[in-house]
Amino acid sequence: MDIKDLLRPTIKALKPYSSARDEFQGATDNMVFLDANENPFENGVNRYPDPLQRELKSLWSELKGVSVENIMFGNGSDEVLDLIYRAFCEPNQDNVITLPPTYGMYEVLANLNAIVIKKVNLDNNFQPKVDEILSTVDKNSKLLFICSPNNPSGNSFYSEAITRLVSEFKGIVVIDEAYIDFSKEESWVSRLNNFPNLIVTQTVSKAYAMAGIRLGICYASAEIISVLNAIKPPYNINELTQKKALELLNVKGLAEKQITDILLEREKLIDALKSIDFISKIYPTDANFVLVKVDDANKRYNQLIEKGIVIRNRTTQPGCENTLRLTVGTADENEILVKAFLLISKS
Ligand SMILES: *Cc1c(COP(=O)(O)O)cnc(C)c1O
Fold first, then answer.
1. In the structure, what pLDDT confidence band is assigned to residue 185 with cuts at 50, 70 and 90?
2. Running DSSP on this structure, what letter comes out for residue 70?
3. Nearest atom, ligand 1, residue 216 CA
4. Number of domains comprising the chain
């Protein structure tokens, strides 16, 4: 498979904007910078940020054991997903495949980019129907989105199913691993070398407790990464984001400790939910949330709102009738949720 054949013609021909900081590299502290029309008075943010985030990227590369040439950062993984659309999908011509119920942004971005979306619903166990997916593909199918662990169901997909999809689909397979750090499954990042058509996305928004700084990660072959680097906005990761990420990622063991706590709380929450009489099913989860089936999702959702608790009502999603998605909070927050459930189950 030649990735160049999948790129949009305009992207193949694109000459990227060359910023002042792109044209001169190799800065040392005692140099005078009069190239970018910045305000010279130092305040910590008066200079443009590094367009390739070298310091942060090398730290992330070390943490994840992935070479920097296989990493690109986006303004949230949502920007990464948008860049993937813009690189590979020709508006009003190409299509993408999604596997509902799943993350809503794949569809929003398809609509935004004038790309047709083909949906193949997951089966009753929220697993991909591989044969049906492969038979839905046509010559204009450029992207296949796999969210594992999946949002909103919480489960991971069988590795054999993903392997078949990545091996047999003739376009780009995007595996969204926003919740991988909560899962026992191995990340697909380690298999990038085996699959030139594989893109993996992750985020610091969930397990790394940095949703507010907007930092998403894209892993792919050096060839794909260089295309995405060429089409991204030059300064897409701002200085404050780069600094805050470096600061928190340098606290040894912080994320690991919080993930362990969240997983412990998740098991406690699941146990407590078993005693709520209107909850008929607790779906298996590999993420920091739990999907539950209730008697009447709209009613229960509104009752919780009245008690000042906001959860996510997923009842309109395919295969998710009368389900609610509960994010695992602190021990105190989960206790408040369970108490409210107990109270409303008596009313
Ligand atoms: C939360 C979430 C994201 C969003 O990531 P950002 O980096 O915050 O944009 C991506 N994919 C899935 C499946 C998510 O649930």
1. very high
2. G
3. 7
4. 2
